[in-house]
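Query form — protein Cytochrome c domain-containing protein

QUESTION: What is the three-dimensional structure of this chain?
INPUT:
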Amino acid sequence: MPELMRESANLLWIGRWDRANCSAALKHKLMVGVVSAALGVLLSGCTANKQPSEQEASLANAAKDVTIPLQAGKMTNPLPETDEIVSQGQEVFLGSCAQCHGADARGDTNVGRSMYPPAMDLTSAHVQHWNDAELFWIIQNGVRLTGMPSWKASISENDTWKLARFIHSLPRRDAASASPAVPSQLQGATSMQDKYSLKIPNGLAFSEFRGYESWPVIAISHNGNMLAAILGNPVMINAYKTGIPGNGKPFPDGAKMAKVHWNAKVNPYEPGSPTVPGTQHDVDFMLKDSKRFADSGGWGYGAFEYDAASNTFTPATLKDKPPQGNDAKCGFACHTIVKARDYVFTDYGHK
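ANSWER: The structure tokens for Cytochrome c domain-containing protein are given below.
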């Protein structure tokens, strides 16, 4: 098998660089054939219930290069490379891509690691060498024999171009984060990485909900000019599946919920001009700990406001709507009306 891998790699490089003997179109067809044949032979003797070898993952990822049509790379991103566009691209990423690629885009999530091959690190040189048009094609069409699906039905072309801008900004953001002296404008762009240091005085810490971006969706809601996704950690999801709270039993300690609010906007690029998430407004948290929060029904509450302009979270205060006090009981009053449901409003959405 190693010999096959080496031969396939040699043919791939020959197809790329032998410009004197074949046209660009012929080279592309040759590379597609070589990689597809090698994948067929290699993957036929492999199972998807174990981590792929380095050679398997490399070959499967190489398939992405050769499946991009030559004409796709000739398109031009119609959107300017501005902080606003990059920020909007990040919103699309967190809403659609972070479950597999992670909030930091490095692919280190339970879902991403279990894919075959694993979800790619979008900061890697392999991904960054694709131009905006090639990223656009991959996102819209997906890549067979890998875990990358087609997002054409879910992400508009306009948002896909925003995603391309955001993905290509990742190395600059990493470099800015690593630098001891970062200009204030770049500090704002990397502040998301510091959100887990936030804590509500006498209340919940953001770090208690680390990884919430990848939690399963419990349900969604639309209230006024806000859209929301209610997420749950594994303890919360498993409790729902046993019939809680409808069976009258309380949620177990360790159950956690996160409610991400977005400002609603109309997307004119999709059929019917649906209402979709715009910029993020805030994120609210609930944590069940019957001893720690005995004076608020066993639940601790926390709310963090998000400012899209500076890309920063801050603990909510009494000036926000609704007002939030600096303690773990900030949401207790309104939740008392569902005391019989263990203070939880949301039903588990059927999927």
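ADDITIONAL NOTE: DSSP finds twelve helices and six strands in the chain.
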